[in-house]
Write a structure and sequence with these properties.
The chain is mainly alpha-helical. Helices cover 72% and strands 0% of the residues. 17% of the residues are buried.
Length: 127
């Protein structure tokens, strides 16, 4: 299934028409938007990995010394599979996609407050 986000070009200011203060403000706003977009893309990466891990039953616990080790192994395999799906769609080298997917899983699993902060800053600035 294909999904397209809607974006209106009319909402984008013409930078040549802005004064210096507005240019700084627009640059800050673009940074917030970039953080929000990156956070949403990372959530997409991590969610596909989560689904692949959930579908991989059973976890190979006998091959890993601990349950968390088995989960990490399953996530690493799933990240590689997902990267092979994302790479052509995003026109990335597979290794680049793999790094992005692994970073997303790490961010959302271990540092969810950082991810939420990127989303929150954008949402708060839009109110």
């Amino acid at each position: 299934m294909s999904y397209q986000l809607q974006w209106s070009v009319q909402d984008v200011p013409v930078v040549a028409d802005l004064d210096e203060d507005a240019l700084v403000g627009v640059a800050v706003e673009w940074e917030r938007i970039r953080a929000f977009v990156d956070a949403q893309q990372q959530a997409s990466f991590a969610e596909l990995v989560r689904r692949r891990v959930a579908a991989a039953t059973p976890l190979p616990i006998d091959q890993a010394p601990t349950y968390s080790g088995a989960v990490m192994e399953a996530q690493a395999r799933a990240a590689k599979w997902c990267a092979s799906e994302f790479a052509p769609a995003l026109r990335l080298a597979e290794i680049t996609a793999q790094h992005r997917v692994q970073d997303a899983v790490l961010l959302l699993d271990r540092y969810p407050a950082v991810w939420q902060g990127a989303c929150h800053d954008f949402c708060v600035s839009r109110r």
